[in-house]
Amino acid sequence: MRIGNVDAGQRGCRRCAVSGFNASKAAIVYLLHNAELQALKIGITQVGSTRVGRFRKLGWSVLVTEAFQDGMDALRIEDAILTWWRKDLGLLPYLAPGTTRDGGWTETVDAGSIDQALVLQRLRTEVANVRNRVPGGPRGSSSGTAEIPRQLLQDHMDAAKDSRDSERQPGCPHAWIIGGR
Asked: Does pTM surpass 0.85?
């Protein structure tokens, strides 16, 4: 994917990505806490990535990491937590752009606005749901009945801005259309 495509509101396919997050490869979902910034952060990265280590060097503590053979599972969990934070609880991104110095500011919340034990419990529940989802159930379903959020495959960094304008990448063999169209 070229930087110009990102600037134009286009995204690469999460399953075809050769750089960035590739949902077809093994991945980790993580939950971090930064006491100095008073922030919680949910995120995903490929297995073998140094991303979590870079956050640790920036003062973040690792609360949970869960590895998955299929990166889509990690993406589902991240999306479920972000949907819960943003839509159900009305919690907005807490940090400003550039605050984390390694991206991911939109996946943060004010640590004082939610009980950390509740977040950990919800994350464990989402992990269990994904690990136990019904084979052949609706795509993205953790129980066989849940509906996958339309914006599952969007990069949360600027989803609100770009989701209406992004298109499926030419040549992508996957049926996913970024932006939920």
From this structure: no
